[in-house]
Design goal:
11 strands
């Protein structure tokens, strides 16, 4: 498994230069490192911020599971989507509202065919809300299929 968490991970993260705003580090409650967040008041409605995870060493014809923590805190905070590089058009995962401010776990299967996925993009779309944030943390890539809960 590869630890791509932001404070001590080994992965290569890049801010997209062609989007509307950047993701920023935010301190965790327990003070153990940080996560990446987009506060609700950044930008204008429907503005987009993309954070890209570059994947260099994935083997062809194998499966991986991307596991991450996320939260959408606040009323009408916006959308969080995940895109795989070789399937640019549609998100492979999307969430647009949090029931509460709790962190939840997202899982995405990545199947490597002849074309390998060389990046995963976390995209935040600004909503109408003025409070709260969209956050992502604890991004881990494991070999094989995603485990059942």
């Amino acid at each position: 498994s590869v630890d791509c968490s932001f404070s001590r991970g080994v992965c290569d993260w890049k801010q997209d230069a062609d989007d509307d705003f950047d993701w920023n580090p935010a301190d965790r409650d327990k003070g153990d490192g940080y996560y990446m967040a987009v506060p609700a008041f950044v930008g204008h409605k429907n503005d987009i911020g993309r954070l890209k995870l570059l994947l260099t060493d994935l083997k062809p014809k194998s499966s991986y599971c991307l596991i991450f923590s996320y939260r959408l805190a606040g009323d009408k905070v916006g959308k969080l989507r995940v895109f795989l590089a070789n399937k640019k058009t549609a998100p492979v995962w999307e969430e647009n509202k949090g029931k509460d401010e709790k962190w939840r776990t997202g899982k995405i299967e990545i199947f490597q065919g002849a074309e390998t996925t060389n990046s995963v993009t976390f995209e935040s779309e600004r909503g109408k809300g003025k409070t709260g944030e969209i956050g992502v943390d604890n991004v881990i890539l494991i070999s094989g299929l995603c485990p059942e809960d």
